[in-house]
Specification:
Number of strands: 5
Shape: rod-shaped
Number of helices: 1
Structural class: alpha+beta
Largest sheet: 5 strands, antiparallel
Radius of gyration: 27 Å
Number of domains: 1
Strand content: 35-45%
């Protein structure tokens, strides 16, 4: 009888240790999954923001398949004339902006970051004779 009790105690200690190890692994897996989701949503948000001209659209919101990307652009420098290779003015005026971005998925915040992006506006037109 005593041997059975000792065997049960040893088995239960092993089972508790195994349960603790399994719990730690499941929590780690949850953190990895949340990090992967944040990375994926951040990459999707950056891809969407590449198509945004902050000079013409300084704030906005886009929604794509449950992913909501909101931004607010702050000018980092005053718009200036763009210069060509030989130093002559181009057709565009350009400016540098900091875009503060918030990403949410299915109504819950996923990520917030800021990125610098160039804005442009056509101020001259090519005259063809």
């Amino acid at each position: 009888m005593l041997e059975a009790i000792v065997a049960l105690v040893i088995f239960s200690l092993g089972a508790f240790s195994l349960y603790g190890w399994l719990d730690v692994n499941l929590r780690t897996l949850g953190r990895i999954e949340a990090g992967r989701e944040a990375l994926s949503s951040g990459q999707s948000a950056l891809d969407l923001l590449r198509r945004v001209n902050p000079m013409e659209e300084p704030s906005g919101r886009r929604q794509v398949a449950g992913l909501v990307v909101e931004w607010l652009a702050e000018p980092l420098m005053e718009p200036t004339d763009g210069l060509g290779r030989l130093g002559s003015p181009t057709l565009y005026e350009i400016g540098l902006y900091r875009m503060n971005v918030r990403v949410s998925m299915d109504g819950r915040p996923v990520q917030a970051f800021s990125v610098r992006q160039v804005g442009w506006r056509q101020v001259r037109f090519l005259e063809l004779d």
